[in-house]
Design a protein that fits this description.
It is built from no helices and two strands. By secondary structure, the chain is mainly β.
């Protein structure tokens, strides 16, 4: 899994390609 953190501190968990929200 890939964890992406946006500027507001929200964390999105994705299983394939990185997506920054």
């Amino acid at each position: 899994d890939i964890f992406v953190k946006d500027l507001r501190g929200n964390i999105t968990v994705i299983d394939q390609e990185p997506v920054i929200i």
